């Protein structure tokens, strides 16, 4: 399933949704998302601003780092926030906690690229990832970094939220507000999470892989939508 296909399914839960995307790049996902009001945040958009008026209808563009955008605290709240920015654990942790502050009570946060496709794709250093790929003759351009660590952090420290990972694609984590029982919180220190590597990610059941339709049904039940 394409990123936008998943996002659009969850946006249909709401009558008049507000959408925020962090990490827009060329806009492939952003422009394919169907929402009346869309906000794009990226330090360097790979398309001309302003874009074609028809594509830009209902859209607002912020060519700044996500930290700068969230620092503005405009008071705007979103039904769905898609996080696909810099693929490091440190940055996704900042983006996720900032997203929690501006998501609506019945809103959904989607984190992209939580399942690394290969060892080199899991490296948080982009230059090192590309150099290793070159040396071993790999042609794919995947780079997920160590975003996967956010799953372990949410599982252990964000009891107020439930989550599951879409099984039909590269790994989109869906997070919604639904408290989990205490026994669902594995005992991990933040330091232990920071030391997790590729094998820990690929051999773990923490991602809670689930068909997108099942995750959608769980969100509906949790929010009474």
Proportion of beta-strand residues: 15-25%
Count every helix, treating DSSP H or I runs of 4 or more residues as helices.
9
User: How many separate domains make up the residues?
Assistant: 1
CATH structural class? Alpha Beta
- Secondary structure tally: strands: 8
What's the quaternary structure here? Answer: single chain
H/E element sequence: HEHEEHEHEHHEEHHEH
CATH topology value: Rossmann fold
Measured as a percent range, the helix fraction is 25-40%
Specify Rg, calculated over alpha carbons: 17 Å
Task: State the shape.
Answer: globular
Enumerate the strands of the largest sheet in spatial order, edge to edge or round the barrel. Answer: 3-2-1-4-5-7-6-8
Structure description:
It is a single chain. Helix content is 34%, strand content 19%. The protein is an alpha/beta fold. Helix 4 (89-102) links the parallel strand 4 (78-83) and strand 5. The radius of gyration is 17 Å and the shape is globular. This is Class I SAM-dependent methyltransferase. It comes from Methylobacterium trifolii.
Keywords:
eight-stranded mixed β-sheet, globular, alpha/beta, 225 residues, Rossmann fold
Compact overview of the structure:
Pfam families: Methyltransf_24 (PF13578). The chain is α/β, with parallel strands linked by helices.
Draw up the topology in text.
Blueprint lengths: L2 H9 L6 E5 L5 H5 L4 E5 L17 E4 L3 H7 L5 E6 L5 H14 E9 L14 H11 L12 H9 L3 E6 L6 E5 L12 H5 L3 H5 L6 E2 L1 H12 L2
Parallel strand pairs: 1-2, 1-4, 2-3, 4-5, 6-8
Antiparallel strand pairs: 5-7, 6-7
């Amino acid at each position: 399933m394409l990123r936008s296909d998943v996002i659009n399914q969850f946006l249909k839960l709401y009558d008049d949704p507000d959408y925020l995307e962090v990490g827009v790049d060329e806009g492939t996902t952003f422009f394919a998302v169907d929402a009346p009001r869309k906000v794009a945040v990226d330090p360097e958009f790979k398309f001309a601003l302003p874009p074609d008026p028809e594509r830009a209808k209902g859209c607002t563009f912020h060519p700044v780092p996500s930290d700068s955008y969230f620092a503005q605290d405009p008071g705007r709240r979103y039904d769905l926030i898609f996080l696909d920015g810099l693929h490091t654990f440190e940055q996704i942790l900042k983006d996720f906690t900032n997203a929690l502050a501006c998501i609506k009570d019945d809103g959904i946060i989607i984190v992209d690229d939580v399942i690394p496709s290969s060892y080199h794709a899991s490296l948080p250093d982009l230059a090192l990832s590309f150099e290793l790929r070159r040396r071993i003759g790999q042609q794919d351009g995947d780079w997920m970094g160590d975003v996967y660590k956010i799953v372990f952090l949410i599982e252990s420290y964000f009891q107020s939220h439930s989550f599951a990972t879409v099984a039909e694609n590269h790994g989109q984590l869906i997070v919604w507000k639904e408290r989990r029982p205490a026994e669902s919180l594995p005992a991990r220190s933040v330091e232990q999470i920071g030391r997790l590597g590729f094998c820990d990610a690929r051999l773990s059941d923490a991602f809670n892989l689930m068909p997108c339709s099942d995750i959608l049904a769980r969100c509906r039940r949790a929010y009474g939508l």
